[in-house]
Write a structure and sequence with these properties.
The structure is a homodimer. By secondary structure, chain A is α+β, with helices and mostly antiparallel strands. Chain A has 2 helices and 3 strands; from the N terminus they run βαβαβ. The first copy, chain A, is elongated and about 50 Å long. The N and C termini of chain A lie close together (8 Å).
Chain lengths: 83, 83
């Protein structure tokens, strides 16, 4: 079966996020007053062939741990969608 | 009310995505054989103060159109979560 995996990788809370701060300042300069706590990271989409959803999620987790995310500075979330 | 907005910005389908291709090659080099159709973009999280979920979504859409996404080359998806 094929699954579409959506991975969201963001800087770990408490670590410096200069890109998030830059976006927050730019939003305020555009008069989006109610915006705050902005964080910027990576969104990755991958088609994964796996026997079931749990296997697809495990594969995606392995991809994050081995390649996609920096385990020291980043946290990731995985969403799996059947195709 | 405060809402947590998750924005996912990805290269428009059909446009060149060299970063996605690089990640796909790297995954195959790591023996993730079942992976394909990889796309890499930006994940942005923003706290938005708004009267209801529809207003928060409209604000996030305006942020994407005015600042966050490039309307020529990128597509975005917005998820709104009440806090």
């Amino acid at each position: 079966m094929n699954f579409r995996v959506h991975v969201r990788i963001l800087p770990r809370r408490g670590l410096l996020d200069p890109q998030g701060q830059a976006v927050e300042h730019a939003l305020k300069a555009l008069n989006f007053e109610g915006a705050g706590n902005v964080h910027v990271g990576k969104a990755i989409e991958i088609d994964v062939a796996a026997s079931d959803e749990a296997a697809a999620r495990a594969t995606a987790k392995a991809m994050c741990d081995k390649l996609l995310a920096n385990p020291v500075t980043e946290d990731y979330q995985i969403e799996v969608e059947a195709r």
